Amino acid sequence: MGQTGIAASAGVAGGISKVGAKGVKEKSGNTDKLPNGQQVNHFEESLHNLPPGERVAQVKQMAAQVISSNGMIKDNRLTKLNNRDVYKGKDGYLYALDTQHGRFEQVHPKTGKHQGEVDMGMRPIDNSIDKSGSHDLKVK
């Protein structure tokens, strides 16, 4: 297989979605930069094929950088009460770390109701509000 064939098969194997100017497909999603310089969409894509233990470690490592750069504070009481890492954001919302998807669950601080997901760049994810209550947090 020539170099063109190798490049083409690499693009197909990479799970790429949008066609770019040269006919090469580009990945979509949030292209904002994370504290380490990596793009948000590339970070999320890098988690897809990792074993659970490795994925959780990668997400927690990135979350620590995002939390620090956004001035968020860990709420140890809510973390223990909900058995998941919960942080208070400067905007007043609570953020529970979603280690499966590499995102945060945004939660109302008074009711504990799920408000939707945000990516590691703190951008909301469309249509991500869970009304079933399975993402709600205990806040009292």
Tell me the layout of helices and strands.
Layout: H1 3-13, E1 18-19, E2 25-26, H2 40-47, H3 52-69, E3 73-74, H4 76-82, E4 86-88, E5 94-98, E6 103-107, E7 114-118
Antiparallel strand pairs: 1-2, 3-4, 4-5, 5-6, 6-7
Topology order in helix (H) and strand (E) letters = HEEHHEHEEEE
Report the mean per-residue pLDDT as an integer. Answer: 85
Question: Helices and strands: which structural class?
Answer: alpha+beta
Number of helices, counting only DSSP H or I runs of 4 residues or more: 4
Low-confidence stretches: 1-27
Give the overall form.
globular
The number of distinct β-strands equals 7
Total count of domains: 1
So what's the oligomer here?
single chain
Computed Rg = 18 Å
Strand arrangement within the widest β-sheet reads 3-4-5-6-7
Helix content: 25-40%
Distance between the termini: 62 Å
What does the main sheet amount to? 5 strands, antiparallel
Residues in β-strands, percent: 15-25%
Structure report:
The chain is α+β, with helices and mostly antiparallel strands and 140 residues long. The chain has one domain. It is built from 4 helices and 7 strands; from the N terminus they run H-E-E-H-H-E-H-E-E-E-E. A 5-stranded antiparallel beta sheet has the order 3-4-5-6-7. Strand 5 and strand 6 form a beta hairpin. The longest helix is centred in the middle third of the chain and has 18 residues. The chain starts with a helix and ends in a 22-residue tail after the last strand. The N terminus is likely disordered. Pfam families: Cytotoxic. GO terms for molecular function: hydrolase activity, acting on ester bonds; ribosome binding; RNA binding. It comes from Photorhabdus australis subsp. thailandensis.
